[in-house]
Amino acid sequence: MQHLDDTTRTELEAAAFRRLLKHLDNRKDVQNIDLMILADFCRNCLSKWLVSAAEERGAELDYDAAREYVYGMPYSEWKQHYQQEATPEQMAALEAHQARKKAAQEGNN
């Protein structure tokens, strides 16, 4: 993508991000814990990254507004309608993932 000018690259990245959000919106059955186990990020991470990007540019964006954008509705509403209780298997998988991540980070130090 180095051959693209900055504006075009930014537009493509933004379009891909919007498509990711639409994909996640169409897959409400995919729980955040599953995303964390498999990809080490979730919808809440995306929200935090948006807030961080806004701060880097001197723009104001609070976390709740960012989450509403990512979830397509207020987080409390999404949670009430779509978030399921994590199973013991999911919790064990997340803990194992976090332990592997911690071990890898310690190995790089």
Distance between the termini: 32 Å
Q: If classified by CATH, what would the architecture be?
A: Orthogonal Bundle
Query: How many beta strands in the DSSP annotation?
Result: 0
The number of domains: 1
Question: Radius of gyration, rounded?
Answer: 16 Å
pLDDT averaged over residues: 95
Helix content: over 70%
Shape: globular
The proportion of strand residues reads under 5%
Describe the sheet with the most strands: none
CATH superfamily: SMc04008-like
Q: With helices defined by DSSP (H or I, 4 residues minimum), what is the helix count? A: 6
Helix and strand composition category: mainly alpha
CATH class categorisation: Mainly Alpha
**Helix and strand pattern:** HHHHHH
What is the CATH topology assignment? Answer: SMc04008-like fold
Uncertain segments = none
Quaternary assembly: single chain
Pfam families: DUF1244
Organism: Halomonas urumqiensis
Protein name: DUF1244 domain-containing protein
Domain SMc04008-like: 30-95
